[in-house]
Write a structure and sequence with these properties.
Neurolysin, domain 3, 7 strands, alpha+beta, 682 residues, 5-stranded mixed β-sheet
Length: 682
C-alpha cells in the first residue's frame, strides 16, 4: 500500500509540508485515500472504544488529532482536481466522490462518537471548559446533530445513500460544465470580428486558438454569464455569439447537459432535509449559518431587489437613449449590448474608458506593488518567491510569507492563468491548514482565470480582474493569519455566510491612494494613473450598480428558489422554473440576466454554496461597515491592520463570528453603508 500510495503516505519533506507534487503521480491518489480512510476509521474506533468517561482530552483532543493523513491527501488532491483536472484526474474524482461521502458519514453519524461528545457537551460547565475548547465542543455537537447523528439506524442508512448519490451528481455537474465550457469557446476567423479588443486581448485569443491547434482566434468563457470582452467589442454579432454561448452551457441537449443532473440534486437535497427534520434544504442550511432561517435571507434579498431593479430600469433607459441617438439603425437593447453601451455612458458622464486603463494594471506590478504592498503596510508581512519549490502545475508560483518580526508564517501560491483543465471562476483553498495541535503552518492557494497573452507580451488586467485578485488574496490572508489550536477552526473554516467578509474588505485597498499610486503605473512608461481619472473612478462607485446588484441578487434568489423546494415539488422545465422564480422577486428583466443560470451555477450545484449564495451580500453588510471603520480610523496603518488581524482574521472559526465582529467594531454592523455603496438608499 505504501508503494502504491507513494509520496502521499509519508509526511512531505518540503518546507511547510508542501506536498511533493514533483513526485506525486495520479495513480498515487486512490491508494493513498484508501489508506487514509482506514487509518482515520481506526483512530475513531480507538476513541469510541475507550472505557474511561469521556473527557475533553480523550475525546475532543483525540478527535482533532485524528484524520491528519486524510486531510493531507484530500487537500493535495482537490487542489489538483479543481485547477488541473486532466481526464485521469477527473476519472479519479468520479470514483472518489461516493467513497469520500461514505467515509464522512461513517464519522459524522457514528453513534458512539456522538454519545461521547454529547456527554461532554452536557457537562461543559461542570468541566470548566472555556474559550476555544468550549466552542469546539459546542460546534462539534451542533455539527454532528445537524449532520444526522441523532437519527435512527434506518434513517441513517437512507441518509448515507442520499449523500453518496449527491456526491456523484455534484462531481458530474462540474465535469459536464468544464467540458461544455471548453467546447463552447467561441472561434473567430479574423481580428476584424474582434474589433475593440486590445493588442493583449487579441494575443490571448490567438494563443488560446493555437493551444488547441486551431487558426484564428478563440474566446474562452468565464464562469459567470457575461464576458469581460463584451464591454469592448464593436461588432454586435460577435457580442451576441459570446453571450449566447455562455448562456447555453449545460442546456444544449448534448452529453454535457446538466438539467437532469441539477433537478435530481435539488430533489435529493430536499429529501435529505426532510429526513433531517427541515421543510427544505434552504431551511436546513441556514439553520447552521449566521442567517438562521431562509426567511431572514428572503427579507434581505427582497429589501435590496426592489430598489436594485428600479435602478436597473433607469440604467436601461439611459442605454437605450444612447442607442437611439447614436446608432444609424437603432435597435432594442439586449443583454449582450449592456456592457458595451454602459462604457459609452461611463465615458460620456465620467470621461472614463475602463478598457483603456489596462496598461496601468500590469499583473506583476498589481501583485507586488498593490496586493503585497497593501498587506505589508497593514500587517507587516513580506513575500519572497521560492522558485525552488514546485507546486502542482508549472504555472503556479510559490511565495514564502514572513511576519513583521521575520518569523516564517507560511506559503502563498498564485495560479493566475486560465487553461482547459482548470474550472471556471476564482477561488482560494488551503493545501496545509494551520494548527497548534498538529504543529502545522498554512499553505494557501489563489486561483484565477486570466487569459495568458502570447510569449513576450505583458499580462494587462481589467479593473474587474484587479478586484478579483485583491478579493481572493483577502481569503488567502484569512488562511494565513488564523492562529488556532484545533484544525477544525483553521483559516476559512467559518460559517459560509461569513467567509466572504475578509475577502470583500481587502477590495477596499484597490483605489486607496497610497496603494493605487504604487501599483497603477503604465507598463511601458511608468507614468502613474492620472489623478483626475482616479477621482472619476471613485465617483463611479455606484455607477451601473442597478445592473450589478440585480444580476447578483437574481442568482442568489434562484439558489434559494431551488432549495426552498419540498421533496414532493417536481420541476420538469428548468427554464420555466427560473423564469417564474425571477418574476417572483421582480428580477426578470431580459437585458439583465442572472449572473449564473442553473445549468452552470457551479457555486450551488458543484460547490459549497448551496442555499448559501446569498452569503456575498450578507457578508457585504459587515464589509461595508468595516470599510467605514478603516476610513474613520486612519486607513492603511499597522495599528488598524493588527486590530483587524487579531480580532477577526486571526480567530479563524474558533469564535462566534458576530461576537468577533463586535469585539473588533465595538457594536453590531449597520446596513446603511452597504445601501450607500450600492446606490440603494432610496
Amino acid at each position: 500500500m505504501t508503494d502504491a500510495a507513494g509520496p502521499l503516505i509519508t509526511p512531505s519533506p518540503l518546507p511547510y509540508a508542501l506536498p511533493d507534487y514533483a513526485a506525486i503521480r495520479p495513480e498515487h491518489y486512490l491508494p493513498a485515500f484508501r489508506a487514509a480512510f482506514a487509518e482515520h476509521r481506526d483512530e475513531i474506533a480507538r476513541i469510541t472504544a475507550a472505557p474511561d468517561e469521556p473527557t475533553f482530552e480523550n475525546t475532543m483532543l483525540a478527535l482533532e488529532r485524528s484524520g491528519e493523513l486524510l486531510e493531507r491527501v484530500a487537500h493535495a488532491f482537490y487542489t489538483v482536481s479543481s485547477a488541473d483536472a486532466t481526464e485521469e484526474i477527473q476519472s479519479i474524482d468520479e470514483e472518489l466522490a461516493p467513497l469520500i461521502a461514505a467515509h464522512e458519514d461513517a464519522v459524522n453519524l457514528d453513534a458512539a462518537l456522538y454519545d461521547r461528545i454529547r456527554r461532554i457537551h452536557d457537562r461543559r460547565d461542570e468541566l470548566g471548559l472555556a474559550g476555544e475548547d468550549r466552542y469546539l465542543v459546542e460546534r462539534r455537537f451542533r455539527e454532528m446533530t445537524h449532520a444526522g447523528a441523532a437519527l435512527d439506524h434506518e434513517a441513517k442508512a437512507r441518509l448515507t445513500e442520499l449523500n453518496q448519490r449527491l456526491s456523484t451528481l455534484t462531481t458530474t455537474f462540474e465535469k459536464n460544465l468544464l467540458a461544455d465550457t471548453n467546447e463552447l469557446a467561441v472561434a473567430f476567423e479574423s481580428a476584424a470580428e474582434l474589433d475593440g479588443l486590445s493588442e493583449g486581448e487579441l494575443s490571448a485569443a490567438s494563443r488560446a486558438a493555437a493551444d488547441r491547434g486551431q487558426s484564428g482566434y478563440l474566446v474562452t468563457l468565464p464562469l459567470f454569464t457575461g464576458h469581460p470582452y463584451l464591454s469592448s467589442l464593436t461588432n454586435r454579432e460577435s457580442r451576441r455569439r459570446i453571450m449566447e454561448a455562455s448562456r447555453s452551457r449545460g442546456a444544449r441537449g448534448n452529453a454535457y447537459d446538466n438539467r437532469a443532473v441539477l433537478t435530481e440534486i435539488a430533489r435529493l437535497r430536499a429529501e435529505r432535509a426532510s429526513l433531517l427534520g427541515h421543510p427544505s434544504h434552504a431551511a436546513y442550511v441556514t439553520s447552521d449559518e449566521t442567517a438562521g432561517t431562509p426567511e431572514a435571507v428572503s427579507d434581505l434579498l427582497y429589501r435590496l431587489a426592489i430598489p436594485a431593479a428600479a435602478n436597473a430600469r433607469r440604467e436601461k433607459a439611459a442605454l437605450q437613449r444612447i442607442i437611439d441617438e447614436t446608432e444609424p439603425r437603432p435597435f432594442e437593447l439586449e443583454a449582450h449590448d449592456w456592457a458595451f453601451y454602459t462604457e459609452k455612458v461611463r465615458a460620456a458622464e465620467y470621461d472614463i474608458d475602463t478598457a483603456a486603463l489596462r496598461p496601468w494594471f500590469e499583473a506583476e506590478r498589481v501583485l507586488q506593488d498593490g496586493v503585497f504592498f497593501a498587506a505589508t503596510r497593514l500587517y507587516g508581512i513580506t513575500f519572497a518567491e521560492r522558485s525552488d519549490l514546485v507546486a502542482y502545475h508549472p504555472g503556479a508560483r510559490v511565495f514564502e510569507v514572513s511576519d513583521a518580526d521575520g518569523r516564517a508564517l507560511g506559503l502563498y501560491i498564485l495560479d493566475l492563468y486560465t487553461r482547459d483543465s482548470k474550472r471556471g471562476g476564482a477561488w482560494m483553498n488551503p493545501i496545509v491548514s494551520q494548527s497548534r495541535v498538529r504543529g502545522t503552518a498554512p499553505v494557501v492557494v489563489n486561483n484565477l482565470n486570466v487569459a495568458r497573452p502570447a510569449d513576450g507580451q505583458p499580462t494587462l488586467l481589467t479593473l474587474d480582474e484587479v478586484t478579483t485578485l485583491f478579493h481572493e488574496f483577502g481569503h488567502a490572508l484569512h488562511g494565513l493569519f488564523a492562529t488556532v489550536a484545533y484544525p477544525h477552526f483553521a483559516g476559512t473554516n467559518v460559517f459560509r455566510d461569513f467567509v466572504e467578509f475578509p475577502s470583500q474588505v481587502n477590495e477596499m485597498w484597490i483605489l486607496w491612494s497610497e496603494v493605487l499610486n504604487n501599483y497603477a503605473r503604465h507598463f511601458e512608461t511608468g507614468e502613474p494613473l492620472d489623478a483626475g481619472i482616479v477621482e472619476r473612478l471613485r465617483a463611479t462607485e455606484t455607477f451601473d450598480q442597478g445592473h450589478a446588484t440585480s444580476e447578483y441578487l437574481a442568482a442568489a434568489w434562484l439558489d434559494q428558489a431551488w432549495h426552498r423546494l419540498s421533496p414532493e415539488d417536481a420541476v420538469d422545465d428548468v427554464a420555466a422554473f427560473e423564469a417564474a422564480a425571477l418574476a417572483e422577486i421582480g428580477l426578470d428583466e431580459p437585458a439583465v440576466p442572472t449572473r449564473y443560470s442553473s445549468t452552470y451555477f457551479a457555486h450551488v450545484f458543484a460547490g459549497g454554496y448551496s442555499a448559501g449564495y446569498y452569503s456575498y451580500i450578507w457578508s457585504e453588510v459587515l464589509d461595508a461597515d468595516t470599510v467605514e471603520w478603516f476610513r474613520e480610523n486612519g486607513g492603511l496603518t499597522r495599528d488598524n491592520g493588527d486590530r483587524f488581524r487579531e480580532r477577526l482574521l486571526g480567530v479563524g472559526g474558533s469564535k462566534d463570528p458576530f461576537e468577533a465582529y463586535r469585539d473588533f467594531r465595538g457594536r453590531d454592523a449597520e446596513i446603511q453603508p452597504l445601501l450607500k455603496r450600492r446606490g440603494l438608499e432610496g
